[in-house]
Design goal:
- It contains six helices and nine strands.
- With about 260 residues, it is α+β, with helices and mostly antiparallel strands.
- A hairpin with a 4-residue loop joins strand 2 and strand 3.
- The protein is elongated.
């Protein structure tokens, strides 16, 4: 059974996750006795459509609008008296998997992806960026107080990071094949039937914008120069999941 074909141009004209849920729900309703193998093929077809709809020529205007939105965020903070410490664009030199346990896409493809339903784009949550920066700062022996704790708020404000450009496409398809789809130990190893799991990741060559500001409520113990040093170490650590497999690795745009 093949999915009803639909225009790839329509995927980013509406909320992507809602669109996918609608398409897959209709598939289940129309095919109540669908088996696992056929479901995998259907998901593969859907993922290919999503990937093909995310090419630069189709989403460039959305990326430009997102960059303008981030300009407004920075302007708003500046007008409120906050000082900009970092505003830099980094390009992915490998794929990025962020928010693997997020329910938005995990319910559809078993592996999630952090997705902003309003901007209709993947993003790196500020909390994740802060975590990588905090770990990198500790490695460099910077004071922990800069990132807050139980007794004091962080002196730094991290903004969610969004894609603002890409080389070829925004999204790509990845695959993992767990040995067991059943509960391990419930069957003999020779009876196991590994089933490939396909899911979305952010493609190599996507450019994200990272913004960090200084809280006006606290005395800053790190300078913009310190932030760049911490960022350089953070880039080496990687962002998101599967960093041990070189996922989530950035370079400064232009390198």
């Amino acid at each position: 059974m093949a999915l009803k074909r639909y225009s790839v141009l329509s995927l980013f004209d509406t909320n992507l996750v809602s669109f996918l849920r609608h398409k897959l729900m209709n598939t289940f309703i129309e095919n109540k006795n669908i088996n696992a193998e056929k479901l995998t093929l259907i998901k593969k077809d859907v993922l290919k459509a999503v990937r093909d709809s995310s090419t630069k020529d189709k989403i460039l205007q959305l990326l430009i609008m997102t960059n303008n939105y981030l300009n407004e965020v920075v302007d708003g903070y500046n007008q409120a008296g906050y000082q900009l410490l970092l505003d830099v664009k980094l390009k992915l030199k490998s794929r990025l998997l962020i928010g693997a346990n997020e329910p938005y896409l995990k319910g559809l493809f078993d592996v999630g992806l952090s997705w902003d339903p309003l901007l209709n784009l993947p993003y790196i949550p500020a909390s994740s960026i802060k975590g990588v920066f905090s770990s990198s700062a500790a490695d460099l022996k910077y004071p922990k107080e800069a990132f807050g704790g139980e007794k004091a708020a962080s002196e730094l404000i991290f903004v969610d990071s969004y894609p603002v450009d890409c080389d070829e496409k925004l999204l790509d398809i990845d695959i993992i094949t767990p040995h067991y789809i059943e509960v391990e130990g419930s069957i003999k190893e020779t009876e196991a039937k590994p089933r490939p799991i396909l899911f979305l990741v952010v493609a190599r060559g996507v450019v994200f914008r990272f913004i960090i500001l200084q809280s006006r409520r606290n005395k800053v113990t790190v300078t913009p120069q310190d932030i760049i040093k911490i960022l350089t170490t953070a880039i080496e650590l990687g962002f998101g999941a599967k960093t041990s497999l070189s996922y989530g690795r950035f370079v400064f745009k232009g390198e």
